[in-house]
């Protein structure tokens, strides 16, 4: 039996990949709450995001993939292609470096998620780079 298969539009592929990246970010942040002393640091303010500016910067950085889900659908193809490539490169490097910096016993889950995020954003770069061109008739 041969199963039916459809060609998936590149915009859907890119949006699905950005959605997957977002879920991995959420899982990482949620599971990090189980790391010893994390919650105490959140309550006391003794954590990495201990100022309004740091919190805003991280919020801006992490909101970009969420916005890319939408932008991958609505932007003109040329702009969408290059924006996905540029943002994809940034987040591939960013999440890879976060993973390397998280190499501790209690954060092996975070390292795993970071490397998985890097793989997905590298896929975004490749798919956007190979955006199909219109065929001349």
Strand content: under 5%
Largest sheet: none
Q: Count helical runs.
A: 5
State the helicity in percent bands.
over 70%
Summarize it.
The chain has helices at about 10-30, 40-45, 50-75, 75-100, 110-130.
List the helices and strands and how they pair.
Blueprint: H1 10-32, H2 38-44, H3 52-74, H4 77-101, H5 108-129
What report would you give on this structure?
This protein has helices at 10-32, 38-44, 52-74, 77-101, 108-129. It is an all-alpha fold and 137 residues long. Helix 3 (52-74) packs antiparallel against helix 4 (77-101). The chain is elongated and about 65 Å long. The model has no long low-confidence stretch (mean pLDDT 94).
Key words describing this protein structure:
single chain; 137 residues; mainly alpha; elongated
């Amino acid at each position: 039996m041969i199963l039916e298969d459809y060609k998936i539009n590149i915009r859907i592929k890119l949006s699905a990949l950005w959605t997957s990246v977002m879920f991995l970010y959420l899982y990482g942040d949620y599971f990090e709450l189980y790391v010893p002393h994390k919650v105490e640091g959140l309550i006391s303010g003794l954590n990495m995001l201990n100022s309004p500016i740091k919190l805003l910067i991280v919020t801006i950085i992490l909101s970009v993939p969420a916005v890319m889900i939408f932008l991958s659908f609505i932007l003109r193809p040329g702009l969408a292609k290059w924006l996905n490539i540029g943002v994809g490169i940034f987040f591939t490097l960013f999440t890879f470096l976060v993973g390397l910096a998280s190499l501790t016993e209690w954060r092996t889950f975070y390292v795993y998620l970071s490397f998985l995020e890097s793989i997905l954003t590298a896929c975004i770069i490749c798919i956007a780079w190979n955006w199909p061109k219109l065929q001349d008739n």
